[in-house]
């Protein structure tokens, strides 16, 4: 299942990524001062993808990426794709699965897995 993953940047701002069903990041949002801004953008994407535009860009290095925008404001940039076909597959993944994608929030902890190795060591004895 595709997922939106909210996390914190090193400077304290929030961001989210949209990851494919295979776990590969398709796009990363702009920096947000508040987690609620990320949540609002995710809900808007999930509820009405038709309001958003995909602008395809080809770099001089022959890599492709897209910008996701709404009302002219760029909200996210995709990863780089090696071909235009792969770029289109990334966009299709968003259009097809974003509305039912899971939302994961890793913004509260610095690490997804705590360092409770002592608990595992006790159980192994």
From TrEMBL:
Domain of life where this protein originates: Bacteria
InterPro entries named among the record's database cross-references: YegP-like_sf
SUPFAM superfamilies found in the cross-reference section: YegP-like
Name of the molecule in the record: DUF1508 domain-containing protein
Protein source organism: Flavobacterium sangjuense
């Amino acid at each position: 299942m595709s997922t939106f993953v909210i996390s914190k940047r090193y400077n304290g701002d929030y961001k989210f990524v949209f990851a494919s069903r295979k776990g590969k990041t398709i796009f990363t949002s702009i920096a947000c001062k508040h987690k609620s801004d990320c949540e609002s953008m995710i809900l808007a994407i999930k509820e009405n993808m038709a309001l958003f535009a995909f602008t395809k860009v080809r770099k001089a290095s022959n890599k492709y990426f897209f910008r996701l925008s709404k009302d002219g404001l760029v909200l996210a940039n995709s990863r780089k794709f090696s071909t235009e076909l792969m770029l289109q597959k990334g966009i299709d993944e968003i259009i097809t699965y974003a509305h039912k994608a899971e939302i994961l929030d890793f913004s509260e902890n610095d690490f997804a897995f705590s360092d409770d190795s002592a608990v595992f060591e006790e159980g192994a004895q």
